[in-house]
Specification:
mainly alpha, single chain, flat, two-stranded antiparallel ribbon, 2 strands
Length: 107
């Protein structure tokens, strides 16, 4: 990953799934196939610091900032973006549901 990071001045390789490119290139090297090149984006946006006690500051590619108050981050953004957007919904930690799923697999 050091080679990818050295070519990524904005350090966005982790966000842009350079780990998948690295895995592909390792397999390609063993198979004698050509390697793919990492091309970092020219701009980056997002939260630099992550959520703070008073909210979340998000910076656009043009350097403008906007703020989500803390309550919106914890009650709206986190469940929707992380819980549903990233993971397409995460089952609640329900012990009864766990015992049911052990008996009969869900389809």
């Amino acid at each position: 990953m050091a080679v990818v990071a050295a070519t990524d001045p904005l350090r966005s390789s982790a966000r842009n799934r350079a780990d998948a490119l690295l895995a592909h290139n390792v397999l390609a090297a063993f198979a004698g196939r050509p390697l793919r090149r990492y091309q970092p984006p020219g701009r980056r946006w997002g939260s630099v610091l992550g959520p703070l006690p008073d909210g979340l500051d998000v910076y656009t590619a043009h350097g403008r900032a906007f703020r989500f108050p803390a309550w919106t981050f914890h009650k709206v953004l986190l469940p929707l973006v992380v819980g549903w957007g990233y993971y397409r919904g995460v089952r609640r930690n329900d012990p009864q549901l766990a015992t049911l799923s052990e008996r009969a697999p869900l389809r």
